[in-house]
Amino acid sequence: MTWKDDYAHRMMNTFGVPKVELVRGEGCAVFDSDGKRYLDFLAGIAVNSLGHNHPAVVGALTNQANLLHVSNFFATEPQLALAERLLRISGAGDDGRVFFANSGTEANEAAIKLARRTGRPRILSLQDSFHGRSIGALSITGKAALREPFEPLLPNVEHIDTTIEALTAAIGPDVAALFVEPIKGEAGVRELPAGYLEAARELTTQHGVLLIVDEIQTGAGRTGNWFGFQESGIVPDAITLAKGIGGGVPIGALVTFGAASTLLQPGQHGTTFGGNPLVCAVSDAVLAQIEADDLVANAAQRGAELRTALTALDSPLINDLRGRGLLIGIGLAEPVAPQIVALALEHGLIINAPNESTIRLAPPLIVGDDEIAEFITTFSTVLNAVSSAAPTEAS
User: Fold this and answer.
1) Over the stretch 189-221, which tens digit does the pLDDT of each residue have?
2) Which of 209, 214, 197 is nearest to 260 (CA)?
3) Does the active-site annotation cover 243?
4) Catalytic residue status for 73
5) CATH number of 3-54+294-394
């Protein structure tokens, strides 16, 4: 039997059978079980901030191996150090608090319970948003196709259009929270309208509503700021984190600001593995390395370089470039994103298609000149091949 046969017989069919079996990584590249090298411009969907096999991650894993798990009956130094760093870089400061979970979905589940503690019944979220696949997180996800097979979900959740007018009409004294992503990654890397977060902050403050910002894909320097909300200058009531803060280990976090920090009390939420010393040590090492190497600035610089290079390709298939920093959505003139992704993989390039008309790029924050040059060369070849084949397929 091949590994694909093994996968089909042993794994639940929630992802389909993958095309490649990966065995190791180095920097911005990964290698499959046949020895083929791939340039990784997805980074585990914005997870591997430092790429693969980074000494900071390997060192933290090794150094913390003597104490992996102690339960949350006890504190550990890595947990406290990571909490301090998150409160500092997020701007939550001394009045902020952190709850550690194991994933972005779990961070959003904690945030939903935070909202419920206000005593108000309604939660607002945006159409086409994505917040996770558990029942609670799915309830606030604005994609009907994902929700419908599992309904009924949580009551009193409303998905509104992403306009200030829709928010103004929907908000009121019975609303507990508004959930927003600074950039809707799963919707095709789509930013909020200009001024939306500022208006949302004003309206939520006016009505006593929590503003909860989902930074799971946009956090940890990905957008050229530590967190996506910081571009607007607003202060949220809470943010949810995961993906890039762990650099590859499973971690999530709810970070609260100000008065929201007092809503959850002892016994009202918990986790067995969340905040364990191993993942906290790694996460703290990842964020420390991002700081030391100024990778937040590198994300802004390299993202700008990628946009310039993509524009210079002058491909008839590219009609739009979206996103910020190293979270880039390439809007396509034709619904050929799956073909582009498949052909790119054949050419040794890992990218992603969140929908049929968008290519998503989320390379490691360590990406440099050589990787950008390799990406542009390979991606140009793939675009030209797909563009040439398109008329034949249409006929």
Assistant:
1) 999 999 999 999 999 999 999 999 999 999 999
2) 209
3) yes
4) no
5) 3.90.1150.10
